[in-house]
Write a structure and sequence with these properties.
Layout lengths: L1 H39 L1 H8 L3 H12 L11 H19 L6 E2 L1 H10 L3 H20 L2 H8 L2 H23 L13 H17 L5 H19 L16 H13 L1 H20 L8 H15 L7 E2 L2 H9 L5 H17 L1 H10 L2 H17 L12 E3 L5 E3 L16 H21 L2 H44 L3
Antiparallel strand pairs: 1-2, 3-4
Length: 479
């Protein structure tokens, strides 16, 4: 008995040791990839690290804008410190330019209803606990396997189109520069857009870095006039009251859960596989645990509720980022600003030109919307190239219709695009990822229901035909 327990314990110890060695080897390969990529294209990695500023800065500015409310919904220094740490950790673990973004649904509710720090933290903690439960029970992985590829593409296209709309909103805001002439707004947009188009041809041009320096240059006079001394971060922990969890936390967090599940976890995992096929894509379960850990740590310190996002990944990729080195660099910048220059960072964010932010958001929208182009090609995860170069459905794939190995017909292509556009249209019309997802699933199920009705009708007609032939056969031989 004792020998059996000893051998079982030995096997368990051996398996744990093998798993740890495997994880360590994977970690070494990831760091090797990060280092080599940064050495080969340092400017592109640094440029790509700032590609997500277009979605990060407007929400940070709104959270800390005292003209909006008498209090701030977050602690900016804590947000910079913890998001910087999260950037560094995710870059080391995943080895891809994985963004750390604000939870937009929570931000929308918090800004509209003028939440205090305790209420914002309650919403972030509620979402973290919910996503952690889905990850631990395996429901996220099951959910990812069940979602058809056209719906995932539709979510990505819908997010891209929404970002185009958001870019227009940012670009049309009034600008206040340090100089007295605000008519520079339109020329800045024009030349920034020309630079964006040029970067599509000259891929090694660090466009995001150029735009960043341009924005700093335009904001420099105001920063000099209103410069403040360095401020050292003083961390503090607070526990939100139970009433904040019950009232504000749940009401603001419920709308964020489907957005995080679809756009921050499932869409990010799929997009990373599309953009960086040579790098191991993070699993939905891993993404879920990452979102959970970030918020269960940072929200207690007044940090902004954060998640990952397909739009941010597309933006950083679009401006040159190809590895985790880019977000590690960004994390170090955030960490230093949060530790020693929180007030200066706040002033800098307030003065950064909307024209530059809008162009950067436009670039992110263009990159993520382009991913939908591979829907009916072998770039889609549920399709493969069969014999004679014919595109067929993969076995056990999340296909719209058809059997594994069946040729992708023109009717199936049309159906896939229809499901994709219904999903994207739902997101764009109602400004809600969950509504777009439900619309796409209903469209997908309607096609499947139609096919089953046709199959059963064909089988029934075949049975009746065979029965009639069986009944007429003896009559044919009767004199």
């Amino acid at each position: 008995m004792a020998e059996g327990e000893g051998s079982r314990l030995s096997r368990i110890t051996t398996q744990i040791g093998i798993a740890l060695c495997s994880q360590f080897q994977q970690f070494k390969r990831t760091q090797h990839y990060n280092l080599n990529t940064f050495r080969q294209q340092p400017l592109q990695e640094i440029s790509g690290s700032f590609g997500d500023l277009g979605t990060l800065l407007p929400i940070l500015i709104a959270y800390t804008d005292k003209s909006r409310s008498s209090h701030s919904g977050i602690d900016l220094s804590s947000t910079l410190v913890f998001t910087g740490l999260f950037n560094i950790i995710t870059g080391l673990i995943w080895g891809i330019p994985l963004p750390v973004q604000p939870m937009k649904a929570i931000a929308a509710v918090a800004l509209t209803r003028h939440f205090h720090k305790e209420e914002v933290a309650s919403a972030g903690l509620f979402v973290a606990a919910s996503i952690g439960l889905l990850s631990a029970t395996g429901l996220l992985a099951w959910f990812n396997r069940r979602i058809p590829i056209p719906i995932i593409k539709g979510i990505q296209i819908g997010v891209g189109l929404s970002l185009f709309s958001y870019a227009g909103t940012v670009l049309t805001k009034s600008e206040q520069y340090g100089w007295e002439f605000s008519d520079m707004h339109d020329p800045i947009i024009f030349f920034a857009f020309l630079g964006l188009l040029a970067s599509m041809t000259f891929c090694k041009v660090p466009m995001a870095l150029i735009l960043l320096f341009m924005g700093i240059f335009l904001a420099l006079p105001s920063l000099i006039r209103n410069s403040s001394a360095l401020s050292i971060w003083r961390p503090y922990i607070f526990i939100p009251p139970f009433t904040s969890f019950v009232n504000e936390g749940i009401s603001a967090g419920l709308g964020q859960i489907p957005l995080t599940t679809l756009n921050s976890i499932i869409a990010v995992s799929a997009l990373s596989a599309d953009l960086l096929p040579n790098v191991a894509a993070p699993t939905p379960t891993g993404m879920g645990f990452s979102v959970t850990a970030m918020n269960l740590v940072g929200c207690w310190f007044g940090s902004m509720p954060v998640c990952h996002g397909s739009g941010g990944l597309a933006a950083q990729y679009r401006f040159g980022a190809r590895s985790g080195a880019s977000v590690i660099f960004l994390g170090l910048i955030k960490l230093l600003l949060g530790l020693f220059a929180g007030r200066f960072a706040n002033q800098s964010f307030q003065e950064f030109p909307n024209a530059i932010l809008g162009i950067m958001i436009f670039a992110a929208a263009l990159e993520i919307a382009n991913v939908g182009e591979t829907l009916n090609t072998i770039g889609a995860r549920d399709l493969m190239k069969g014999k004679d170069g014919i595109i067929t459905v993969l076995p056990r794939a999340n296909q719209t219709d058809g059997e594994p190995g069946e040729e992708l017909t023109s009717e199936m292509r049309t159906r896939r695009w229809t499901i994709t556009f219904v999903t994207a249209g739902g997101i764009l019309t109602f400004k809600n990822d969950a509504v777009g997802f439900i619309a796409g699933m209903l469209c997908h199920c309607s096609y499947q229901l139609h096919d089953r009705i046709v199959v059963r009708r064909t089988q029934r007609e075949g049975t009746i035909r065979l029965g009639d032939e069986g009944g007429r056969a003896p009559q044919a031989g009767t004199p």
